[in-house]
Design a protein that fits this description.
Strand order of the largest sheet: 1-3
Shape: elongated
Number of helices: 6
CATH class: Mainly Alpha
Structural class: mainly alpha
Radius of gyration: 18 Å
Number of strands: 4
Number of domains: 1
CATH topology: Four Helix Bundle (Hemerythrin (Met), subunit A)
């Protein structure tokens, strides 16, 4: 366990509340549709992602660094950058998806292939946002060693979900999706 400052722990807690406020708002706006094609196997991916995130935060923090010291400030800046990215990606992605957004992989009859906003750079930006959240949690609490198990579990869950979602999109949109998948990375955007 790496020492952290009280400020970075509280900064993460406050930003996590903001992240969850966006999530709750998005969940409350989600619209169901009878006859939508669902793939409930994505729930297993959700479980693995959740366990990965939980492992990143498992254990108490060792909040012994001075908040205004170099290491404490660096930790707070890292939390701010990572959580800012997580919140920004989630908010922009869920807004771009609109009524297409869903927790479980599904395809509406009137589903659209969204390629604007964050979806112009990556096919699954919400999962990139969740990865940033996981990293921010580990940084905030000083649980760097937990990442050795947390990241692989999260990535396995993400791989399960992206494969299912990509299959549903390919079945619905055919060549349009295949072209999009060929030119747009799944999670990590191309630099340059």
């Amino acid at each position: 366990m790496v020492p952290v400052s009280v400020a970075q722990v509280w900064l993460f807690a406050g930003l996590a509340l903001l992240f969850f406020a966006f999530l709750i708002r998005t969940l409350s706006r989600a619209s169901g549709e009878t006859g939508a094609k669902r793939d409930n196997r994505s729930r297993f991916g959700i479980i693995l992602q959740s366990v990965g995130i939980g492992l990143a935060g498992f254990g108490p923090p060792k909040a012994t660094l001075p908040s205004l010291g170099v290491a404490g400030l660096a930790g707070s800046v890292a939390v701010l950058v990572l959580m800012g990215g997580a919140i920004g990606l989630f908010a922009a992605s869920s807004r771009a998806l609109g009524r297409n957004w869903s927790v479980v992989a599904r395809m509406r009859r009137d589903h659209e292939l969204v390629r604007q906003g964050p979806y112009a750079r990556v096919r699954h930006p919400i999962y990139l946002g969740l990865l940033l959240f996981l990293l921010a949690l580990a940084v905030a609490l000083g649980h760097w060693l937990n990442l050795l198990l947390a990241i692989p579990l999260f990535l396995i869950g993400t791989r399960i979900r992206t494969r299912i979602e990509d299959r549903l999109l390919e079945a619905q949109f055919g060549d349009s999706f295949r072209d999009y998948a060929r030119t747009t990375p799944a999670i990590i955007p191309k630099l340059g």
